[in-house]
Structures are given as C-alpha cells and as structure tokens.
Design a protein that fits this description.
Keywords: DNA-binding. This is PPC domain-containing DNA-binding protein. Pfam families: PCC (PF03479). By secondary structure, the protein is mostly beta strands. It has one domain (7-136): 60s Ribosomal Protein L30, Chain: A (2-Layer Sandwich), CATH 3.30.1330.80. Helices cover 8% and strands 55% of the residues. The protein contains one helix and ten strands. The protein has an eight-stranded antiparallel sheet with strand order 1-8-2-5-6-7-3-4, covered by helices on one side. It is globular, with a radius of gyration of 16 Å. The two termini are 13 Å apart.
Length: 140
C-alpha cells in the first residue's frame, strides 16, 4: 500500500504593494515546492485585475476592493487563481486573478504545499488552453 500524500499547510500574509499572484508564486518557489493549492484568501486590493469567464480583456476594479475569496493552483509554469472582490458599493465580481492585483492593506492566504507532487501547465488539445498536469515527483 502506498504511503498517503502529504501536504504542508503554510499561512502567508502579504503586505501593501505586493502583487498578489507574483508574491504567492514567489512564496511557493521559495519554499522549494513544485505544487500548491490556495485553500483560502482574504484581504484588500487596489486595483484588482480580473479576467472574466470567456473574456480576452482584463476588467479593472480601480477602487478599494475587499478580497472575499481566493483559490486555485500554483505551479512553476503558471498559476490558475480565481478570486472574488467587492467594491466600495458592495458589488461583487469574480474571475481569474491576473498579475497586477495589488495588495492594499493585507492579504491573508492559506497555502497547501504538496511535497510529493509537481504541477505544470501544458496545452490541452481539447481546450486549447494550458491546463494543469499533476505528476508525482520522481521516486514517490
């Protein structure tokens, strides 16, 4: 029987001015992990840059925005992060978190670093997009 997969819970607090996506990718790489999930994330952003479902252009929320949810996968070859934010009127928008989402006051994120796995993103002919490929690390 194979040993159960292990992951390490890793709480992170990002600071004002951090690029949300770049900072999380750097954190995962800095921990020597090749695969991670974002389990939860809250905080505030300004601006929030979001690619809506099926859209090619990025939508910008250029006001103080509460980060309500954050989840996804992080790999050395690319991340797939979804978020939802509420603007100052309480309107909520969500989609793909792009580079340029800047932490306003804080972002508190719980990562799951998967020690036995390597994530990559490779073009899937069925979708035309770079999709997640999860492989066990050599020797696992």
């Amino acid at each position: 029987m194979a040993a159960p997969d292990t992951f390490r819970a890793f709480p992170v607090r990002l600071h004002p001015g951090d690029d949300l996506r770049r900072a999380l990718e750097a954190t995962v790489a800095g921990e020597g992990a090749a695969a991670a999930f974002v389990l939860s994330g809250i905080g505030s952003l300004r601006p929030a840059l979001i690619r809506l479902a099926g859209a090619e252009e990025v939508t910008t929320v250029d006001s103080d925005a509460e980060l309500l949810t954050l989840s996804g996968t992080i790999a050395a070859t690319g991340s797939h992060l979804h978020l939802s934010v509420a603007d100052v009127q309480g309107r909520v928008v969500g989609g793909h978190a792009t580079y340029g989402c800047i932490v306003r006051t804080t972002a508190e994120v719980l990562l799951a670093l998967l020690q036995d796995w390597h994530f990559s993103r490779e073009i899937d002919p069925a979708t035309g997009w770079a999709e997640l490929v999860a492989r066990r690390r050599a020797g696992e």
